[in-house]
Amino acid sequence: MPEAVTPAMPRPALYLVDASLYVFRAWHSMPDQFHDADGWPTNAVHGFARFVLELLEQERPRHITIAFDEALDSCFRNRLYPAYKANRDPAPEELKRQFTHCKALCAALGLNVLAHSEYEADDLIGSALHHARPRGFRGMIVSADKDMSQLLMEHDEQWDFARGQRWGMAGVKARHGVEAAQIADYLALTGDAVDNIPGVTGIGAKSAAILLAHFGSLDILLTRIDEVGFLRMRGAAQMAVRLREQREHALLWRQLATIALDAPVDGAEPDFVRAGVDAGMLEALSDSLRFGPMTRRRLREAAGLPG
């Protein structure tokens, strides 16, 4: 258990990495010239390994967890709304294999890996942070996903690693037009095309931001719909009509957009401390994935192994 944190002491950081985002980014950006010993492509693994190495070398995190998406069509949100993320094509077998390798690589490096068939990576990250906060930790969420900003509290930060941008709770409004605590309400109104959440018809980003600035929350907005028509904004009367008609839908969209804080995060090390390295597994992965000498050297250095 970490020592009690006093005002004079900085809070220890828990690094929470949205792995799937960086695996997909590597899959789309890395050249298709990398293959394992069996001839399967490994471009996503190579790109993801570079990202993980840069993070470890730059930050040297003591407390870290890497969350992967496994709930592709078995997430609890699919039971609430079967069309959730139905606009996404299933991952090809070549990519599924690489996800397995990426998880194995993280485990070999002693990084806590979280994955669950009913919860998404967002939920696992939110639940890990929710678990760690009372123990004195602040969150460092490594993800560019705007959904994650709803998790930010006073001492937390979100980090778009690729762009080198970091922001805290106070910086969310400048990026998205609403406060961190309003992100799920905002997505309920505007929808989220990435996740196939429709939103309320006719309400876009600017309108949603104005509504939430005026009313504070979706709940208050829905109890005071009669006032919407009198707001000085284009199409206000029609918005009021749509909100009455789609009230239950808006509540469902918010439920889909809200990150769960009760996903199981057991199986990780206490306080998500970085565990010991599995040198044998690391060497075997380096061989089977055909990592080059530079990547092998960096992996051994990141693992604290002799060169």
TrEMBL record:
The keyword Hydrolase applies. This is Exodeoxyribonuclease IX. It comes from the Bacteria. The keyword Nucleus does not apply. Residues 10-275 form the 5'-3' exonuclease domain. Pfam families: 5_3_exonuc (PF01367), 5_3_exonuc_N (PF02739). CDD domains: H3TH_53EXO, PIN_53EXO. The lineage of its organism: Bacteria, Pseudomonadati, Pseudomonadota, Gammaproteobacteria, Lysobacterales. Keywords: DNA-binding, Hydrolase, Nuclease. It comes from Pseudoxanthomonas gei.
